[in-house]
Amino acid sequence: MNSLRTDISRRTFVERFAQAAFGVTLLPAFGGLRAAEPAIGGKAKSVIFLYMRGGISHIDTFDPKPGKPEMAGVNAIKTSADGVQISEWFPRMARQMHHVSLVRSMTSTQGIHDRGTYLAHTSYFMTPTITHPSLGSWAVKVLGSANAVLPGNILINGSPQHPRSGYMPTHLAPLPITDPGAGLQNAALPSKTTESDFARRTALARAIGERFVNQTPHRDAAAYLKVQQDAATLMKSEDLKVFDISREDKKTQAAYGTHTFGKGCLLARRLVESGVRFVEVEDEHNWDTHNDQVKSMENMTPTTDQTMAVLLEDLHQRGLLASTLVVMATEFGRSPQISTVTNGRGHHPGVFTWWLAGGGVKGGYVYGKSDATGEHVAEKPVTMQDCNATIAQAMGIDLQHVEHSPSGRPFTVADKGKAVTDLFA
What we know:
By secondary structure, this protein is α/β, with parallel strands linked by helices. The protein has helices at 7-22, 91-94, 113-122, 135-143, 195-215, 219-235, 250-256, 260-273, 293-317, 384-395, and strands at 24-26, 33-35, 46-51, 76-78, 85-87, 100-106, 153-156, 175-177, 278-282, 324-329, 333-334, 347-348, 352-357, 365-367, 369-370, 377-379, 403-404, 410-411. It has 3 domains: 2-35, no CATH class; 46-183 and 244-423, 3-Layer(aba) Sandwich (Alkaline Phosphatase, subunit A), CATH 3.40.720; 185-241, no CATH class. Helix content is 32%, strand content 15%. The termini are far apart. InterPro entries: Alkaline_phosphatase_core_sf, DUF1501.
């Protein structure tokens, strides 16, 4: 106990208390205060999160193993990034790799689709007692959105497995869009409804809703009222036009592609251009290639390669890539060995690849490494939590910021994940 009474111990205690409570550090001689060093990152104003549902093969995409039997005869090709090769299935992305940071040492313990998807979106393991919010909900909760009218969190072609806003209020859940080519559905006034009728109904709904909220101390009631009011505001706003991709010229529409993923990424570009904070686009393909791996890749990769490459180039040409972080994510990789029975690849959470581009990250860069056959992480393992911490830090979210569930449990945006600062330029 005597050791606790020394001047050094008291000073250490005060310094730690000050740092935890106020984010400052005392100078050794107590000559003054200085602010804690700012975290690297914070350049991404928006995120476009491209999700490859089903677990896309790392070997057949962005971590090829040239000459190895695991490649099943598929070749690796050079890219615009010095010394970086990717699969021949992605020739257009090969020309954009100078924008991309590859993370080839992603690893997870979750080899089941719903659990892997949940972890990828929330940084937490699935549990029956609570649903955690997705990264997009965190972004809007902590940072808000640059556009006061448009929703700050949008999910295009999302699956039912998406955790939405979890324990956070409903108005922080992503706005779901199932058909990105059809604009925002049910946003126009009903036929024979005049402007004055709409205004009167909106005012009545607000009055009734506010009275109900005042008498019902439940945050979901208030969240529902906010969603209703925000929707009414959007219906009257010029910003509604951002959802109409037919306003783009025919050349741009054709470049992105007429398929759902292409339309979704074009819409995503329009949304971030208008200040939307977080847009997730799920690829329409199911990358769960248990059967006929080579044939499946041959069928699916052309449209995905086309759209991802055009998105990066379009953002770059418009001067948006520096402030927009584009992420390609998936729940796990696929086995290096191809089944002799099904000619497909099985689930493989041990090692896989995500990539990031723009938003303050390095271009033409590779972080981490899998072993010679793509079976295990060989260097610098990165968990889902770590990569999500990197995305959060790129947006300027404080990784130590705490939000509480309705039961009072504290949570942070990426659980115990640590940002991979080597990825930042």
